[in-house]
């Protein structure tokens, strides 16, 4: 398939710029895998489409305040960095803009407590930074860093916690698992009371979020690697759900990629941690998941390709056209769909 097969026309005014309040008041499109039925409701009615014995799988990663601005010590030029991957305690891989001002050996100051030297420029253009830090690194980063909001969000975020899920725990992502932004703590508790199981996995969202598909043939696209972890309790819950005939419903493409990576590697879901560069597109044979809750994704992105693999290409593109016609809100702070 071609990258252009996944293009759709999206009016700019449908790109959500701010999160909606309360979180679970966003709209929800309900899609049935076995027919062409499309229902429209709100996210706080999600329980009507779940059954006792189903299991929701949530990605509990927490977003780093990874957007930092450094001043070149020699020239005073300001360069923006987004930290994407921790190589060691004080060595990080990230992207820089403008990159031409961040060559190997260049030194930057971010605050009185934080400075860094570019120690390598990788073939893909990413920079490797070695930091010097007066204090605990993540505490200092929290003081100087900003949320790395996607480029299409122009509005300033007044509360950084709105770009975190309410269940975020494991610090390490460069972007939020945005399908989870719709849940409130109260909603999760209500779902548990109705017999819906909750399993938490971790995938630190990294480089792939920032890299568009640049090749025409999608099979030639190479995904960047991201670290994931499935703990014993989550693996047990997921396997027990499958054994009892319940459905495993992933909240977000990151949870989906985590489970499918483990199932591909081991044949079952088990306690594990690894890196994955799994690329899911039409023709993929799903090995674990039975349902998917996700937001509406960018045209020609690997995320809309994953959705097309699960729901079907033609039905996915029809659903997106319907979402545009019905004026759904798109992307990170936008509305959601459930495919079951």
Describe the structure.
The chain is α/β, with parallel strands linked by helices and 340 residues long. It is 19% helix and 28% strand. The chain has a nine-stranded mixed β-sheet with strand order 2-1-17-16-14-3-12-13-15. It has a six-stranded antiparallel barrel with strand order 5-6-7-10-9-8. A two-stranded parallel ribbon has the order 4-11. Strand 1 and strand 2 form a beta hairpin. The longest helix is centred in the last third of the chain and has 14 residues. The mean pLDDT is 96.
Q: List the uncertain runs.
A: none
Q: Helix/strand-derived class?
A: alpha/beta
Query: What is the count of distinct domains?
Result: 2
Number of helices, where a helix is a run of at least 4 consecutive DSSP H or I residues: 6
Trace the largest sheet across and list its strands.
2-1-17-16-14-3-12-13-15
């Amino acid at each position: 398939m071609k990258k252009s097969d996944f293009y759709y026309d999206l009016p700019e005014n449908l790109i959500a710029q701010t999160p909606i309040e309360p979180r679970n008041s966003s709209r929800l499109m309900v899609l049935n895998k076995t027919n062409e039925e499309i229902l429209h409701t709100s996210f706080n009615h999600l329980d009507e489409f779940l059954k006792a014995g189903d299991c929701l799988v949530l990605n509990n990663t927490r977003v780093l305040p990874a957007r930092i601005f450094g001043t070149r010590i020699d020239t005073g030029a300001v360069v923006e960095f987004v930290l994407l991957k921790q190589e060691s305690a004080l060595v990080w891989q990230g992207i820089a803009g403008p990159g031409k001002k961040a060559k190997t050996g260049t030194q930057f100051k971010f605050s009185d407590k934080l400075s860094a030297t570019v120690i390598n420029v990788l073939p893909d253009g990413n920079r490797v930074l070695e930091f010097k830090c007066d204090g605990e690194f993540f505490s200092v980063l929290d003081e100087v860093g900003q949320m790395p909001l996607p480029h299409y969000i122009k509005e300033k975020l007044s509360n950084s916690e709105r770009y975190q899920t309410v269940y975020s725990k494991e610090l390490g992502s460069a972007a939020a698992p945005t399908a989870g932004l719709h849940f409130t703590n109260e909603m999760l508790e209500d779902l548990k009371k109705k017999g819906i199981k909750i399993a938490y996995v971790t995938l630190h969202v990294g480089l792939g979020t920032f890299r568009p598909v640049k090749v025409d043939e999608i099979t030639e696209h190479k995904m960047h690697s991201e670290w994931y972890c499935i703990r014993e309790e989550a693996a047990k819950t997921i396997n027990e759900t499958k054994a009892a005939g319940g459905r495993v419903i992933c909240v977000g493409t990151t949870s989906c990629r985590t489970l499918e990576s483990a199932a591909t590697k081991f044949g079952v879901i088990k306690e594990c941690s690894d890196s994955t560069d799994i690329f899911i597109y039409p023709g993929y044979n799903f090995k674990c998941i039975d349902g998917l809750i996700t937001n509406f994704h960018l045209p020609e992105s690997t995320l809309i390709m994953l959705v097309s693999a699960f729901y079907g290409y033609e039905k996915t593109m029809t659903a997106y056209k319907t979402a545009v016609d019905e004026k759904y809100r798109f992307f990170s702070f936008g509305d959601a769909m459930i495919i079951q």
